[in-house]
Amino acid sequence: MNNSVLTREREVTVYNTIGNNQKSIRTAAANWGQLQEDLGRHGINFANMTAVIGETQVTLESTQAQLLGEPFTLFLMPQKVKSGADIDPDYGIRAEDEDWNFEDPELYSFINEQEQAKARLQKAVILLNKVTGYLCDDCHKPVSDPQVSALQRTAEEIQRNMNLFS
């Protein structure tokens, strides 16, 4: 006799708070480990994420953690948020908010993809300015240096494009 738990296939709606992504999959997984395999097959990244079943608020930690036998909602949230704030899957932040520290926009939940794109652009401008500063200050290249000028122009162009989002 087979001791494995048989679960009939049902729909699982997965919300990933990074980028506010939603995807529904069909699965017969009985536990978190089996569901991880199905998520991987459907291209859903759950690495360094905390998984919470929405209906029960149960956090899935052990691969043997049992799943609901009926359709359910799964929230995937970053395990660590640099701002120290918890992410609520129903809300997000705007790129202009001071709730994120420009280190890594991928660790935050923005209200929509456009806000995340703006945050990524802000991060790109910051990095380009850091490289330009390094070249001028540490490498003693003049602002007129073609490499420095090109980086500055790129940062300015990104800034202009970012303003189009506003």
Per-chain topology:
Layout: E1 10-16, E2 21-27, H1 32-41, E3 49-53, E4 58-60, E5 72-78, H2 113-137, H3 146-165
Parallel strand pairs: 1-5
Antiparallel strand pairs: 1-2, 3-4, 3-5
Radius of gyration: 21 Å
Tell me, what's the shape? Answer: elongated
Residue share in helices? 25-40%
Overall mean pLDDT stands at 78
- Under CATH at level 1, the class of the largest domain stands as Alpha Beta
Biggest sheet, open or closed, and with what strands and sense?
5 strands, mixed
Q: Indicate the low-confidence ranges by residue numbers.
A: 81-90
CATH architecture title of the largest domain: Roll
Percent of sequence in beta strands: 15-25%
Tally of separate domains: 2
**Structural class, please?**
alpha+beta
What does this structure look like?
- The protein is an alpha+beta fold and 166 residues long.
- The chain folds into two domains: 10-78, Ubiquitin-like (UB roll), CATH 3.10.20.90; 105-165.
- It has helices spanning 32-41, 113-137, 146-165, and strands at residues 10-16, 21-27, 49-53, 58-60, 72-78.
- Strands 2-1-5-3-4 form a five-stranded mixed β-sheet, covered by helices on one side.
- Helix 2 (113-137) packs antiparallel against helix 3.
- The relative contact order is 0.12.
- Mean pLDDT is 78; it is low at 81-90.
